[in-house]
Amino acid sequence: MTETAEPVVIHTDGGCRPNPGPGGWGAVLRHRGHVREMFGGEPGDTSNNRMELTAPIMALEALTRPMTVHIHTDSTYVRSGITKWVLGWERNGWLTSAKQPVKNVDLWKRLQAACAVHRVEWFWVKGHSGVADNELADVLATRGMEQAIARL
Fold first, then answer.
1. Bound how, and how many: what does the cofactor note say (predicted)?
2. Closest Cα partner for 141 from 21, 8, 12?
3. Which of 7, 47, 52, 91 has the fewest CB atoms below 10 angstroms from its CB?
4. Binding site for Mg(2+): which residues?
5. Which parts are annotated binding residues?
């Protein structure tokens, strides 16, 4: 894997109103003084968790070569899922420890594939705590949600 020493720093967020309902996701990517803002949304019934998962997927898939990446999320579901739970789910045929199908398995598989291309470290950040890029990711997710609602 060819990669740069300086990581791409990504902040992500996602949400729905109501949950489930139309949703949006946002991501802020920073690398060597460059900033890229991304957002999108789903006008149909989606969930907060699906939007929280979509944001890092879209950010990682936007990278054009293997990189060292630091992803900051305010979703413990996403961070714990990708760093702790996903390998067990995969080993158990995408069933939880209670033998129930894993929710959002399509997105977990896609996130795993996106992570496999890069060297990714995950960080949890408290939402709405004044971290500038987390706040911006929230604004972008809201923009994506509003555009999705406008398409209804």
1. Binds 1 Mg(2+) ion per subunit. May bind a second metal ion at a regulatory site, or after substrate binding.
2. 12
3. 91
4. 13, 52, 74, 138
5. 13, 52, 74, 138
Tell me the three state secondary structure of residue 124.
strand
Residue type present at position 91? R
Q: Helix (H, G, I), strand (E, B), or coil: what is residue 18?
A: coil
The CA angle 141-126-118, to the nearest 5 degrees, is: 70
pLDDT tens for each residue of 45-85 = 999 999 999 999 999 999 999 999 999 999 999 999 999 99
Q: Centre a 10 Å sphere on the Cβ of residue 32 and count the other Cβ atoms it contains.
A: 7
Percentages (nearest 5) of helix, strand, coil residues in the chain? 40, 30, 30
Q: Which residues are bridge partners to 39 per DSSP?
A: 26
Residues involved in catalysis: 13-14, 52, 74, 128, 138
How much is the pTM? 0.95
- Tokens coding 35: 């900033």
Q: DSSP labels for 63-112?
A: -SS--EEEEEES-HHHHHIIIIIHHHHHHTTSB-TTSPBPTTHHHHHHHH
